[in-house]
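Cross-check.
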Amino acid sequence: MKKSISPVAQIREAVQHLNPAEVRELAEREARIRIVGATPEAARQIATFLCPAVMSPARRKASAQRIELGKPEPGARPAIEIWDTELIQPESAFTWNPADPRTTLRSILDAHPDLAIALARLFPPFREMVVADTIHAVSKENALFSLATALPDIVPSMLTLPWAVGQFASDTAFLTVNQTRMAFLIAAASDCPVGYREQRNEIGAVVAGAFGWRALARQLVGKIPMGGGLVPKAAVAYAGTFVVGQYLDKLYGVGYRLSRGERRNAYEEAFLKGKEVAAALLAQFRKSKSA
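Predicted model, tokenized:
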């Protein structure tokens, strides 16, 4: 008889598939920004927005070295170009909207998802969006996996996830490993150290919380017959991951943890969102199956 593997051992084995060096490489990718302003002062104002005074002098200096001002000379290094709204710009450039700079940042991230972590690490105004995108994406992946473990016939759809699902013995292992990956990504985007040793306390908190989410998910599914608990189960996976992401964001952003009330409010809000996400995923699976 094959000896069963404990959940802790499953998590330990699954975590071995993660390589924090890959996340560090994402954070260290070459990300350069060229600013073309209607006036030199306008260009400097955009540069100051990207490298605010709240940054440490060393980080601000390092990030400022990735910014170039003025129109590119022939043979200049490739860069993300931001042009003043008053100028006629090339098609590949992004328009700076001083009244709504987030629109410009969003456009850049949508066009360069491969540079999102590097941009967030270098330039704090990108950080909020990148961290929020990361938390939602990983929370959605965990909701998706939670559904897939209950509906084996939809496993092929899991190829969109960053793992080969066959290597995970349980949904608890997958969800925990994915939350650990999220911890690496949020730390990198927040310009904080990335790695098992560097983040041992945060990863320990992720692993410790995994079994509480699993127990809650099982309780919900067990109370609702005929598969009606699938959406709540997936919503728990989404909400649990979302709260972990919020905890990490606050820890790396301001240096302290969520209070009990903040955790409760974040979970309640995320659970409602998770139900919407899970219901949409389930409807998508059923539609593709009936097609």
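The chain has two domains: 7-26+127-290, 31-115. The two ends are 41 Å apart (CA to CA). Passed to J.P. for a second look.
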